[in-house]
Design a protein that fits this description.
heterodimer, A: mainly alpha, MetI-like fold, 9 helices, B: D-Maltodextrin-Binding Protein, domain 2, D-Maltodextrin-Binding Protein, domain 2, five-stranded mixed beta sheet, 10 helices
C-alpha cells in the first residue's frame, strides 16, 4: 500500500478524455430521444385492444429486459455482421442502447398510463373528445408527468451502462480511459478521473432533465405539486 | 456499542480483503506454498482453452513448470489484455506470463525477466486491399487489441488509420470472423485463428511490423524473485525444455541468442 498518485502524466490526454465524454453524451442523447419514442409507442401497444400488437410489445419487453446488455450489443455488432449487415460502431452502440432503454421505458410509461383513472377517460369521452385528444391530453400527458422521475433515472442508468459499448470498440469515455490507461500505466488515476467525469455527466444530465421537465410540464412548474 | 463493534468489523473486513492484494516476495511465495500467476486466456497458442475445456498454451504450460520447480501450487489469475500491466502494478498476481513484450515504457513501471519467448506482430488483410506498409493503412479501419504493441505502433506510424480497439484477442477474432472488419494488426497465431473462421475471404500477411521479445513480468522491488526467474529461464532454455515446449505449440524455433538479448 505504497501507491503514489500522479496526475501530471495524464495532463496531455485531456483531449481524449473530453472526446470520450462527448461521445458518451452523444450516445445518451440519441438513446434518450429515440428510447422515449419507443417507450411511448411500446406502452400504447402493450395496452392496445389489438391482440397481436400486445403480444409483439410483450415479447420485445420480456426479451430485452431479461437478457444482459452486453449480449444484446454483441448480437447487434457481431451477430448481424455475420449475416452481412455491417454497421458502424456508433450506429450499433446507439441502436443497442435505444432497444434496451426502449423496453424499460415501455414498462415505465405503461405504469403511468395505468395510473390514469378510467373515470377521467369516461369523462373525456362524454365531453366528445376524439380518441387522439384523449390519448394526448387525458392519458399521456399526466402519465408522463407522473413517471418522469423514473424515466429520467432510467436514462441516467443508460448513460452509465453505455460504458459497456467499449467492449465492441466504441471510443466513448470508458474506451478512452482504457486506451489512456494502457499508454500511461496510471490506471488508478485514469479511472479516478473517469469516475469523476461520469459523475459530472450525471449531474449535467440531471440538470438537463430538470429543465426539460419545467418546459414539458407547465402544471408542475406553476403549482409545484406532484400529480 | 453495537454500532462501534460493527464499524470495527467492517474496517477489519476491508483490511483483510485488501491484504492479499500486495505481491508476495520469493520467500513469502514459498512459505505460502502457492504462487498466483496471471495469464491471458483467449490468445491462440499462448493461452487458450482446448477441446477438453482445459486451459493450455505455451504461457500456461510455462507457468505450470515454474510453479512445479518452485515446489508450490499454482493459482491462475485469468485477466484481459489491457489488465496485464495494472495487474502486476497492483499486485493482484505475483507474476505474469502473458505474452507481454519487453518495452522501455513498461520497464519503467514493472520488471521483466530475460526474454522467454518471441512474437512476430504483423498486419493482415485480404489481398485486394493492397496493403504493403504503414502508409497504405491511412484512412483504413484497422482492428487491434487494446494495450498491445500493435496498438502503439499503428498509432505512431499510421496516425490517420481508424483504429478499432477490442479488449481481447477473442473479441478481435470475432470482429474479423463476422466481417465487421477486414484489416487487422495482430500476431501470426491470431491471424490463423481468424482465417479458420473466414475461409471464403482469408487475410494474408501484408507486412511484418516487428519481432518482439516477451518477458515474464513481476512487480518492481522483488530482486530475489527476479533472480530466481532469470536463472530458471536461462537453465530451461539451455537444457532445451523451454524451446521444446514453445515449439510444440507454435511450430517454430526460438532464436538461439534469445536469453542473452539485452533490453
Amino acid at each position: 500500500m505504497t501507491y503514489q498518485l500522479d496526475f501530471t502524466s495524464l495532463g496531455a490526454y485531456w483531449p481524449q478524455f473530453l472526446a470520450g465524454a462527448l461521445t458518451t453524451l452523444q450516445f445518451t442523447l440519441y438513446a434518450t430521444a429515440l428510447g422515449l419514442v419507443i417507450g411511448i409507442v411500446g406502452a400504447i401497444a402493450r395496452g392496445s385492444h389489438v391482440g397481436w400488437l400486445r403480444l409483439v410489445a410483450g415479447i420485445y419487453v420480456e426479451v430485452v429486459r431479461n437478457t444482459p446488455f452486453l449480449i444484446q450489443i454483441f448480437f447487434l455488432f457481431f451477430g448481424l455482421a455475420s449475416l452481412g449487415l455491417r454497421m458502424p460502431i456508433f450506429v450499433a452502440a446507439v441502436l443497442a442502447m435505444v432497444i434496451n432503454v426502449g423496453a424499460y421505458s415501455t414498462e415505465i410509461v405503461r405504469a403511468g398510463i395505468e395510473s390514469v383513472h378510467p373515470s377521467q377517460i369516461e369523462a373525456a369521452e362524454s365531453l366528445g373528445l376524439s380518441r387522439f385528444q384523449i390519448y394526448r391530453d387525458i392519458i399521456l400527458k399526466p402519465a408522463l408527468e407522473r413517471v418522469y422521475p423514473s424515466l429520467t433515472s432510467q436514462f441516467t442508468l443508460m448513460m452509465l451502462m453505455s460504458s459497456v459499448t467499449s467492449q465492441v470498440s466504441a471510443e466513448e469515455l470508458t474506451g478512452a480511459a482504457n486506451n489512456i490507461q494502457s499508454v500511461t500505466f496510471r490506471s488508478m488515476e485514469t479511472y479516478l478521473i473517469v469516475g469523476l467525469l461520469y459523475l459530472l455527466l450525471t449531474l449535467l444530465l440531471k440538470a438537463g432533465f430538470w429543465g426539460l421537465g419545467q418546459v414539458l410540464f407547465p402544471r408542475r412548474r406553476r403549482l409545484g405539486t406532484v400529480l | 456499542m453495537k454500532r462501534r463493534t460493527l464499524l470495527g468489523l467492517a474496517a477489519a473486513a476491508i483490511i483483510v480483503a485488501a491484504a492479499p492484494a500486495s505481491a508476495a516476495s520469493l520467500a513469502e511465495i514459498q512459505a505460502a506454498g502457492k504462487i498466483r500467476i496471471a495469464v491471458v486466456p483467449g490468445v491462440p497458442l499462448f493461452a487458450f482453452v482446448d477441446a477438453n475445456l482445459n486451459l493450455t498454451g505455451s504461457d500456461v504450460e510455462i507457468s505450470r513448470l515454474i510453479a512445479k520447480d518452485l515446489g508450490v501450487e499454482i493459482e491462475f489469475v485469468e485477466i484481459a489484455n489491457a489488465a496485464r500491466v495494472p495487474t502486476i502494478q497492483a499486485g493482484t498476481a505475483d507474476i505474469l506470463v502473458g505474452n507481454l513484450a519487453i518495452t522501455p515504457q513498461r520497464q519503467e513501471v514493472i520488471d521483466f525477466t530475460v526474454p522467454y519467448s518471441t512474437l512476430d506482430i504483423i498486419v493482415g488483410a485480404p489481398e485486394r486491399y493492397g496493403i504493403t506498409g504503414y502508409e497504405s493503412l491511412e484512412g483504413q479501419r484497422v482492428g487491434v487489441t487494446r494495450a498491445t504493441v500493435n496498438d502503439t505502433l499503428i498509432t505512431e506510424h499510421s496516425p490517420n488509420a481508424e483504429q478499432v480497439r477490442f479488449e481481447d484477442d477473442a473479441t478481435l477474432i470475432t470482429a474479423l470472423a463476422s466481417k465487421q472488419l477486414d484489416i487487422v494488426s495482430t500476431q501470426g497465431a491470431v491471424l490463423a485463428a481468424i482465417n479458420e473462421r473466414r475461409a471464403d475471404d482469408p487475410l494474408e500477411v501484408s507486412f511484418v511490423q516487428q519481432s518482439l521479445d516477451l518477458g515474464i513480468a513481476l512487480p518492481k522491488g522483488q530482486p530475489e524473485l527476479l533472480a530466481w526467474l532469470n536463472d530458471w529461464v536461462k537453465k530451461n532454455f539451455a537444457d532445451g525444455t523451454l524451446p521444446k515446449l514453445f515449439e510444440s505449440f507454435h511450430g517454430r524455433e526460438l532464436p538461439a541468442d534469445l536469453v542473452d538479448r539485452v533490453h
